[in-house]
Amino acid sequence: MVPSKKTFAKPPYHCDGKTPIRKVRVVLNCNPDFLFGLQRERRHYRFYEYANNYHMEITQDNATGKWHGIIVTMMEASQRIRRSEDAVKREYGEGRKFIMDC
């Protein structure tokens, strides 16, 4: 939804009543496990929140036989595709076997 010109015809003013507010910075408390940071010159300059899950990869530990579920987010799947990889990772090396994705 694009705001109309009437929305910003009168900008909001600072508490002094004279200074118009042109830019704001929104700060949110987020779980760092669910954030993806873009880096520029070795510093994070923008963060995106992982929102959608693409699929889940089920693997089996060869030593114990237990199954493990690995959730792949939409962001991670799109990065794999950009790197010319499959969205579903089927190779986990020694010690783990790919069972299925769902």
Structure report:
There is one protein chain. The protein has 102 residues and is mostly beta strands. The protein has a domain at 51-101. The protein is 9% helix and 34% strand. The protein has one helix at residues 74-82, and strands at 35-40, 43-49, 53-61, 67-73, 96-101. Strands 4-3-5 form a three-stranded antiparallel β-sheet. A hairpin with a 2-residue loop joins strand 1 and strand 2 (43-49). The longest helix has 9 residues, at 74-82. The mean pLDDT is 82.
Helical amount: under 10%
Secondary-structure element series: EEEEHE
- How much of the sequence lies in strands comes to 25-35%
Query: Termini separation (Å)?
Result: 34 Å
From the spread of the alpha carbons, the general shape counts as elongated
Strand order of the largest sheet: 4-3-5
Number of beta strands: 5
Q: TL;DR of this structure?
A:
This protein has one helix at residues 74-82, and strands spanning 35-40, 43-49, 53-61, 67-73, 96-101.
